[in-house]
Amino acid sequence: MNQLVFDEGLAEQLEVLYRTRDVLRRRALIREALDPQPGDRILDVGCGPGFYVAELLEDVGPEGSVVGVDNSAAMLAVAVHRCQGRSNAAFHEAEVLALPVKDASFDRALCVQVLEYVPDVPAALAEMHRALRPGGRLVVWDVDWSTVSWHSADPDRMARVQRSWDAHLTHRSLPRALSAQLRAVGFDDVRMDGHTFATNEFTPDAYAGALVPVIERYVAGRGEVGEEELRAWMAEQRELADRGEFFFACVQFAFTATRPG
Asked: Which H, E and C letters describe 63-116, residue by residue?
C-alpha cells in the first residue's frame, strides 16, 4: 500500500478541490449534520487545509472555539494561514489515534474523509468519544469507493486506473462497518445518510472533474499504469465530455452519533 502523501503539492490541489461546487455542497451538508451552536467547542479531526475550522468559527462566534488536528505539517501551515488572527482557533500536529486534547472537552467533533486511511478505526473513534463531553455530537463522513460508477469505452483500462487509485486507501468501503464500530466504542443514536455525487459534466466544479488531477498525480507515481495508458485515459475523459457522454457517480455517507450523557 502506498497512501497519498499530504505534502505541499497535494495541499495545492486540495485548495482547488475544496472550493468546487460539489465540495461546497458537501461542506454545507456536514455543517448541517453537525448543527454547531454559538459558544460551542468543536474539534476537527483531520482538519486538512482548515476550511471547516474557518467556517465553523463563524457559527460558534467569539464565545466558542475550534481546534483542528492533522498529522500533515503542510496541511496545517495552510490551515493556520487561513485562520490567521482568529484567537479562538488552535491547531495541533498529531495522529488521530492520540488526540492532544483533554477528556470531555468538546461539544461537537467532526472527522471528514479521514478514517478511510486509518488502520485502527475503532481506536480512532474511541479517541473522539473520549474528547467529547457527555451529550456531545460526532459527525463522520467517508466515501464508499466501491460505489463509483465511471463511464469509459475501455472498461479494462478504467478498472486498472481505479485499482491503482484504490491503493491510496486503507478501507475501500469503510461506511459499511461504521455504524457498528460507532456503537461498539460507546456512541448512541447512530444515524447514517447517503449522499450521491453524480455528474455528466467534466468540469472543475464537479467532484469528478476536480478529483481527476489528484488521481492522475497519484497513479502516475505508482508505475502500475503506464504513462502512455494514463494519458490515454485522461484524453478519453475529455473526449467523452466533448461528445456529451461523460458520466461519474459515487455515494458518500454522513454518520452522526452522540456520546451518552
From this structure: CCEEEEEECCHHHHHHHHHHCCCCCCEEEEECCCCCCCCCCCCEEEEEEECCHH
